[in-house]
Amino acid sequence: MTITTHSCVVKGKQAVDVVTQTVDYSGKGTLIKVLRGGICGSDLHYYQHGRVGNYAIKMPMVLGHEVIGTVEQSDSPKLQPGQKVAINPAKACGECQYCLADESNQCLAMQFFGSAMRQPHVDGGFTQYKVVETSQCIPFAASLDERVMVFAEPLAVCLHALNQAGGVTNKRVFVSGVGPIGCLIVAAAKASGASEIVCSDISARALALADTLGASATLLADDEMVSYRTDKGVFDVSFEASGHPSASTRCIDVTRAKGCIVQVGMGGDIPQFPMMTVIAKELRIVGTFRFTHEFTTAVEWLASGKINPLPLFSGEYSYREVDEALQFAGDKHHASKVQLVF
């Protein structure tokens, strides 16, 4: 069966268009009719700069990896037509050493929606129809708010970060940088029983959102945080979500001896890295990348109302207005999470 679909395709810097494509479905996997998708920072980077880090757009690529949809047809009797599903954008090989060790986010042959890492690029989910592996489909009730369920992918990123820290229950937590991911870390930490959550950012608007999502205290980034530096630091866990080198240094200063720092934000190297402080305080610094089983957990948390991400919802556009949507999403003075409706 061949279906015509309209797709949001990026072709390079400031070059995005809606094009007509075809989708072939042979009965293997699941054919999805996409309902809506959230615009992520990587989508913005591809649109604004034509690249994410070292990975440049070299051929037209469908954007998007935060998508939900309804089942049209499936090879599984558990997925009937009309069933709403969140789509896990990570398609791991299931065979490499990392997949076999239950570390699929490190898969050596990962096919991740909307990524220019591989040649040819991996098309994303900003399209009307898409065929995915049935295992990528996580069902949810038809009665749930679609705007909420689109947050499954970014919430999964945050839940993985919490797991990388070893959990935050009854711990004092610092979150540096409260864009959408930082704010969702706040919400997840609150839902996980953190005893205190202090946030820092350059934006008063972002800090107000963090406060709404559960922060105990918010500080502008130029605050010296003197009281939090005493006794070798006070926070059990710090999440650095801004990607700014100076913020990483601040986390080292305010995290207590033997505490943990989780580097979430992607940024530049830290000049004059304070290695001796890390050694003397016996700090544990860990990275966090995407997610594994946390995607299913994120769907469950959103479905149950354990987390309400809607304070971050800044508006929606028709997929035909993808250029305008990306421009608005890039305006950090007014937008947090913008969604496309298909």
Structural domains: how many: 2
CATH class of the largest domain: Alpha Beta
CATH fold-level label of the largest domain: Quinone Oxidoreductase, Chain A, domain 1
Write down the overall geometry: globular
How would you characterize the largest beta sheet? 7 strands, mixed
**What is the end-to-end distance?**
21 Å
Let me know the average pLDDT. Answer: 97
The helix content is: 25-40%
Number of helices: 11
Summarize the structure.
This protein has 342 residues and is an alpha/beta fold.
SSE arrangement:
Layout: E1 2-12, E2 15-24, E3 30-38, H1 41-49, E4 51-52, E5 55-56, E6 61-62, E7 66-74, E8 84-87, E9 90-91, H2 97-100, E10 111-112, E11 129-132, E12 137-140, H3 146-149, H4 152-164, E13 172-176, H5 180-191, E14 196-201, H6 204-212, E15 217-220, H7 226-229, E16 235-240, H8 245-254, E17 255-263, H9 275-281, E18 284-287, H10 294-304, E19 313-318, H11 322-329, E20 337-341
Parallel strand pairs: 13-14, 13-16, 14-15, 16-17, 17-18, 19-20
Antiparallel strand pairs: 1-2, 1-6, 3-7, 3-11, 3-20, 4-5, 7-8, 8-12, 9-10
Helix pairs in contact: 4-5, 4-10
Task: Provide a descriptive summary of the structure in words.
Helix 11 (322-329) links the parallel strand 19 and strand 20 (337-341). The protein starts with a strand and ends with a strand. 27% of the residues lie in helices and 31% in strands. The chain folds into 2 domains: 2-151 and 309-341, Medium-chain alcohol dehydrogenases, catalytic domain (Quinone Oxidoreductase, Chain A, domain 1, Alpha-Beta Complex), CATH 3.90.180; 158-287, NAD(P)-binding Rossmann-like Domain (Rossmann fold, 3-Layer(aba) Sandwich), CATH 3.40.50.720. The protein has helices at 41-49, 97-100, 146-149, 152-164, 180-191, 204-212, 226-229, 245-254, 275-281, 294-304, 322-329, and strands at 2-12, 15-24, 30-38, 51-52, 55-56, 61-62, 66-74, 84-87, 90-91, 111-112, 129-132, 137-140, 172-176, 196-201, 217-220, 235-240, 255-263, 284-287, 313-318, 337-341. The mean pLDDT is 97. Strands 3, 7, 8, 11, 12, 19 and 20 form a 7-stranded mixed sheet that branches. The chain contains 11 helices and 20 strands. By secondary structure, it is α/β, with parallel strands linked by helices.
